[in-house]
């Protein structure tokens, strides 16, 4: 689940102008974060109670990873307008990014009370309940989103993931395929669909995993799933090539080193090289049980 922790984090686009005041403040998308920050700092020096400027600065600071400062700004905005849904949603995002799930939930509950039909609030409630594995409740929120926006990418993807977690593979495939059809550049949906087909040992896995790899060549999770599919099919040349590709991207992938060792041990019977690869895996993860066992087996088979 960690991998998907912030996939659906809703970061609001910065507004072009600052509503509610007649200053010459302008924040445009082509400005750097530092330039936006300087502009907002100047505005708040002149108008320290400008709630919208505090909100905009909170957005910029959040985008820069300066979450404590962002929280101070959004709290100032909310002090002036405690029922402003945009302010509440941004505070929820900051809480979520900081790992404060309980505070995020409280803020979003307030947002839901204020705007029970707001799509962003419903989606965020679907996300937070999804993240806490309250899947049935998450589906309720996500279904409200898709009732109004049947092609909402985040809601469809989360529904697919929930059904996968619940063991309803058919429904999971249905939702992931909808995402792939509507959003052909969304690599994660292709990866999930490929993994599901691979779990059923279906050739369709190759189509979806290869598409995911083309869309995001740096995603080692996709490459690993593809390598495992080839390995399970005893296509060791393709599997090895992919494991080496993974290691080019992340040389500390213990799983890739282990699987290379396993291929050397079981297929090529090159026990010395197998031991070398298992050693590399164990240097990264000394508690890796499979590497420990297979290393001992390689030593035994080598006669050392």
What's the story with the biggest beta sheet?
A: none
Q: So, the CATH homologous superfamily of the domain at 1-115?
A: Tetratricopeptide repeat domain
Q: Give me the secondary-structure category.
A: mainly alpha
Assigned CATH class of the domain at 1-115: Mainly Alpha
- CATH topology of the domain at 1-115: the name is Serine Threonine Protein Phosphatase 5, Tetratricopeptide repeat
Q: Quaternary status of these chains? A: single chain
- Give the terminus-to-terminus CA distance: 42 Å
CATH architectural arrangement of the domain at 1-115: Alpha Horseshoe
Radius of gyration: 24 Å
Task: Extract low-pLDDT stretches.
Answer: 1-24
Helix content: over 70%
If helices are DSSP runs of H or I spanning 4 or more residues, what is the number of helices?
Answer: 16
Shape: elongated
- The succession of helices and strands, N to C, reads HHHHHHHHHHHHHHHH
Question: Could you list some keywords that capture this structure?
Answer:
disordered N terminus; single chain; 304 residues; mainly alpha; Serine Threonine Protein Phosphatase 5, Tetratricopeptide repeat
